[in-house]
């Protein structure tokens, strides 16, 4: 991403807040592509680590099952070039199918038309973290300040420093995403390790992919499953002890929940729903 001349404007002792781009717009001073220096190396490593879906290569099955998708859990953004959330979804779908003992050759034959033959395991970011200038606390004037007064002044200075740094990081992040140098991961709420995520979906990701695999391959094998068929396996329904009418009502509700979640998975992966 070209940032144009390094014409610094505004700013503070921490770092200049903006610079002027070639088109005259103001760009946050830190807002350069964080992968710029290492993008070529990263692209080469991505190409070298790509997995191929070949029915004639049964060892690929074990390699795919061995891929650790938890590597994505700590990532919140990714560089453009590869649709990493889509790659993660494809890999999770294939792993789920293989763990359900769908034959390898059938997995390949039935998914290649939609996934292609190239798969990418999780990437390793190669970037240098952004380090702001260190916080400099105020001096202690023993003639005019008590220790308590200095502590108040230091706390005020720290809050101002933190607010400014946070604002700078936010401007940088926003600019990089809006300029499409970076993209954000959209995470299933119940399946990530990111703290502070509120609410969970009706169905956790693992279950949604399980039902999606069953639904997709059932249709491909000429034995289509209904949403009610899938809902019948929900623990909530199996443990239900109410009346038959209430059980039927619950089953319809669960079937609709299954439909919503499974359809979402299939559409995200560009599979027929």
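-> sequence recovered:
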């Amino acid at each position: 991403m070209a940032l144009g001349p390094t014409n610094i404007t505004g700013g503070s002792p921490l770092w200049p807040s903006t610079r002027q781009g070639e088109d005259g717009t103001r760009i946050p001073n830190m807002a350069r592509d964080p992968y710029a220096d290492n993008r070529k190396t990263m692209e080469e490593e991505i190409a070298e680590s790509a997995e191929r879906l070949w029915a004639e290569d049964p060892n690929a099955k074990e390699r795919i099952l061995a891929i650790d998708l938890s590597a994505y859990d700590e990532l919140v953004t990714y560089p453009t070039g590869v649709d990493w959330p889509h790659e993660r979804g494809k890999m999770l779908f294939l792993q789920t199918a293989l763990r359900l003992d769908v034959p390898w050759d059938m997995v390949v034959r039935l998914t290649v038309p939609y996934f292609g033959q190239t798969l990418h395991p999780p990437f390793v970011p190669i970037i240098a973290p952004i380090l702001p200038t260190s916080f400099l606390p105020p001096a202690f004037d023993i003639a005019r300040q008590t220790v308590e007064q200095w502590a108040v002044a230091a706390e005020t200075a720290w809050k101002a420093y933190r607010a400014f740094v946070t604002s700078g990081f936010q401007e940088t992040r926003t600019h990089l995403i809006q300029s499409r140098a970076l993209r954000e991961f959209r995470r299933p709420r119940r399946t990530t390790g990111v703290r502070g995520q509120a609410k969970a979906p009706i169905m956790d990701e693992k279950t949604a992919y399980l039902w999606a695999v069953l639904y997709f391959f059932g249709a491909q094998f000429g034995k289509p499953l209904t949403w009610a068929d899938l809902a019948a396996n929900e623990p909530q329904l199996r443990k239900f002890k109410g009346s038959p009418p209430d059980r039927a009502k619950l089953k319809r509700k669960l079937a609709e929940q299954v439909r919503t979640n499974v359809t979402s998975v299939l559409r995200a992966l560009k599979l027929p729903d």
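The mean pLDDT is 80.
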